[in-house]
Design brief:
281 residues, alpha+beta, 2 domains, two-stranded antiparallel sheet, 10 strands, globular
């Protein structure tokens, strides 16, 4: 377990008062203990949060002067100000392999359809994407960069996705830990071949890459990947890794997956207990 100062210990104690905080801290302990996150990065994290807690009131990213009042989302906000320091820091690099990324159809249509196709970017673009993929929407119509607000996106090895068991849209969402897709919506699968990943960096994810997401779990092992948390019961889901941004082109394919149903609220207290057991807490 990482060592820390009394001030940082007070924050950790307060952090673990919530299920989300317990999950985040347990994941971080497992990351550091397994070597998935270097000890030097943890030391910088501790120093950064301490400086933020003691910053003057006029500081741009000031946190409460009482470290015990520091909330998880505040910490994530501070750490996100230094992506080169805290993101993509795992030394584990998975080999190039075919990958998939599951997205909601509306987002995919809004960001990855060529404008010359003539589609209107309105609230029904997702429906038209589901109808048109493979018919009027072909690989030559793909455009844009695969990425998120961070300098990477999340993906799953194709072989694991294909062997997930439940082939429904709900089954895919749950196995991939896509907890932000909790309302009924259409999903698509972006298939990225190994050849498209030539020269593209891949990394195992860490707790710091996942932010405050409770649906991620570090996964020490030879596969150099993390694991999602199955949304139905909190059990280990599918392997996932980080991919540096890449341009979506006609070497990739996109297929409709189906429509999800509403997601029941998860039992995060049980998830926190499982995360702590894995981390030895």
């Amino acid at each position: 377990m990482p060592t820390h100062s009394p001030t940082f210990a007070a924050w950790v104690h307060a952090l673990r008062a919530s299920a989300e905080g317990r999950i985040w801290w347990a994941n971080l302990v497992l990351d550091v203990g397994s070597g998935n996150l270097p000890c030097a990065v943890f030391a910088r994290l501790r120093a950064t949060l301490r400086r933020a807690a003691l910053a003057p009131a006029s500081g741009p990213h000031r946190l409460s002067a009482d470290a015990r009042a520091l909330l998880l989302r505040d910490a994530i906000q501070v750490l996100d100000q230094a992506p080169a320091t805290f993101q993509l820091q795992s030394p584990r690099r998975p080999p190039p392999q075919p990958l998939v990324r599951v997205m909601d159809a509306t987002s995919w249509g809004s960001f990855h359809l060529a404008t010359d196709l003539g589609e209107r970017l309105d609230d029904r673009i997702g429906e038209r994407v589901m109808r048109g993929l493979g018919r009027t929407i072909l690989p030559r119509h793909y455009t844009g960069w695969m990425r998120t607000a961070k300098p990477f996106f999340w993906a799953t090895p194709s072989r694991d996705f294909d062997q997930r068991g439940d082939s429904s849209a709900d089954g895919a969402r749950d196995a991939l830990g896509l907890g932000h897709l909790d309302l009924p919506q259409d999903l698509v699968v972006v298939h990225i071949p190994k050849a498209r990943l030539k020269g593209v960096g891949l990394r195992a994810p860490t707790t710091l890459d996942a932010g405050d997401s409770p649906w991620f779990s570090p996964w020490p092992g030879p596969e150099s990947a993390g694991r999602t948390r199955n949304l139905r019961d909190g059990s280990p889901g599918l392997p996932e890794l980080l991919v540096e941004p890449l341009a979506l082109d006609d070497r990739c394919t996109v297929t409709p997956l189906g429509r999800t149903t509403a997601l029941p609220p998860p039992d995060k207290a049980a998830w926190a207990q499982a995360a702590e057991e894995r981390a030895g807490l």
